[in-house]
Design a protein that fits this description.
The complex is a heterodimer. Chain A is globular, with a radius of gyration of 17 Å. Chain A is built from ten helices and twelve strands. The longest helix of chain A has 11 residues, at about 30-40. Chain A has an eight-stranded parallel β-barrel, surrounded by six helices. In chain A, strand 4 (about 45-50), helix 2 and strand 5 form a beta-alpha-beta unit. Chain A is α/β, with parallel strands linked by helices. By secondary structure, chain B is an alpha/beta fold. Chain B has one domain: Rossmann fold (3-Layer(aba) Sandwich), CATH 3.40.50.880. Chain B is about 25% helix and about 35% strand. In chain B, the strands form two sheets. A nine-stranded mixed beta sheet of chain B has the order 2-1-3-4-13-12-11-8-9. A four-stranded mixed beta sheet of chain B has the order 6-5-7-10, with helices on one face. Chain B starts with a strand and ends with a helix. Classes of the chains: A alpha/beta, B alpha/beta. The interface of A and B includes residues 1 and 170 of A.
């Protein structure tokens, strides 16, 4: 049986891992390599790096740290931020990333998903979906990396899920924006509603605040993994403690 | 001891080299058959589709090298799949060194495809057993050369071995310490 994945997400800016509150007041939480090595040794199943500056500046993530990460850890990692073409994806994958994640560029050009899947294989292509609930209507938001650019699109989340799967995405990261940064639990209602339309692996993101939140996620939904940032960076939960707890609760988790 | 990594265009070439570096094992990455001949063991990486990998191999006569070589060879993921007779992926004839075909994996609601993440590998070789990282939509079901397997709707061949040929469906280069141990298993037992 495939184990449930625990995935720390590292927001990266100017070569460091940062954490902000509602897109503002970013503080440096550590160096990319040090944190990557720490999470690898503590049992992270995968890492996601999100270059929060790249997309909004229309710049590709700097690839030098991608190679350094690949040299220093031996678990899969995904890079997101500013990847908007086959050539930019190639640069990141050849630097050593295992997957690329695209979000706003896919909304602008859904065929980009198809091109990437054809060129590199579906398993490399992750589509990040920022979904926001408004009166039980779930819609996709774009350019969420920055307060000034973030906006609601006229696409319903459920329709977008169908499109990205048809285009050949290998995985979806479903970021439930209403819960993001609140540490009050994953958005189980939204996930349960949307998951019936998902036939590829999906990772739930947004709201993780305690080990119990991961238990709720994995016992109530079909999510392949749970993604979280601040709880790991701020040492609210350590990976070994979390994994031990999930194991105790009979969740199928990789031993470290 | 020197390992030759066959350059067939995949994007995980460096990951394999970095894993070998970590184990202190010397390696070269090349698409030149003569240069690869001068190494002790070969690794066929695989990221991408079978038809693309087959094409890349034949462009540089690396298919002939694999077929004629008596050196220990390890195929990883698609690098393992192309050792079989045929792959449904791209409707491709493969090298035919192992009997059987590569087929599209069957999914189910709790078993999404791609088969992505860490799954348990079971084997009578106790030193192979453990969790390894998978990222595949195609696989071989119960090969007669299987020495380790993984459950995912069906029983997928996780490790195959025949004479000098080894193959693993998972990615040892991305499987943390278990993966490094598996690379060592290949190095020490082949």
């Amino acid at each position: 049986m495939l184990t449930k994945r625990i995935i720390p997400c590292l927001d990266v800016a100017n070569g460091n891992v940062v954490k902000g509150v509602e897109f503002k007041n970013h503080t440096i939480v550590g160096s990319i390599i040090e944190l990557s090595e720490k999470y690898d040794s503590e049992g992270a199943d995968e890492l996601v790096f999100y270059d929060i500056k790249a997309s909004t500046k229309n710049a590709l993530v700097s690839k030098s740290w991608v190679t350094e990460v690949a040299k220093n850890i031996s678990i899969p990692f995904c890079v997101a931020g500013g990847i908007s073409s086959v050539s930019s994806a190639r640069e990141i994958l050849n630097s050593g990333a295992d997957k690329v994640s695209i979000n706003s560029p896919a909304i602008e050009d859904p065929l980009l998903i198809k091109k990437l899947a054809k060129e590199f294989g579906s398993q490399c292509v992750v589509v990040g979906i920022d979904s926001f609930a408004n009166n039980n209507r779930y819609s996709v938001h774009a350019k969420t990396g920055c307060e000034k650019t973030t906006h609601e699109t006229n696409i319903q989340t459920i329709d977008w899920i169908n499109v990205v799967q048809e285009m050949g995405a290998g995985e979806i990261v479903l970021n439930c924006m209403n819960q993001d940064g609140k540490r009050s639990g994953f958005d189980l209602n939204q996930i349960k509603l949307l998951q019936n339309n998902i036939s590829i692996p999906f990772i739930a993101s947004g709201g993780a605040g305690s080990p119990e939140d991961f238990v709720d996620l994995f016992t109530n939904t079909n999510a392949s993994g749970g993604l979280a940032a601040s709880i790991f960076h701020k040492n609210i939960i350590s990976l070994p403690v979390l994994k031990k707890y999930l194991k105790l609760k009979k969740i199928n988790i990789r031993n470290v | 001891m020197k390992i030759g990594i066959l350059d067939c265009g995949g994007s995980n070439l460096n990951s394999i080299k970095f894993s070998l570096d970590r184990l202190g094992i010397d390696s070269i990455t090349s698409n030149d058959a003569c240069q690869l001949e001068r190494t002790d063991k070969l690794i066929i990486p695989g990221v991408g589709a079978s038809d693309v990998v087959m094409k890349k191999l034949s462009e540089n006569s690396l298919d002939d090298l694999i077929k004629s070589s008596k050196k220990p060879i390890l195929g990883i993921c698609v690098g393992m799949q192309i050792l079989f007779e045929y792959s449904q992926e791209g409707d491709t004839s493969c090298l035919g060194l192992l009997k059987g075909k590569v087929e599209k994996l069957k999914g189910a609601y709790e078993y999404p495809i791609p088969h992505m993440g860490w799954n348990y590998v079971n084997s009578k070789h106790k030193d192979i057993c453990g969790y390894y990282y998978y990222a595949n939509s195609y696989g071989v079901i119960s090969s007669e050369n299987e020495i380790a397997s993984t459950e995912y709707v069906n029983t997928i061949s996780a490790v195959v071995k025949k004479n000098n040929l080894y193959g693993c469906q998972f990615h040892p280069e991305k499987s943390s310490l278990a993966g490094l141990d598996f690379i060592n298993f290949f190095i020490n037992n082949s």
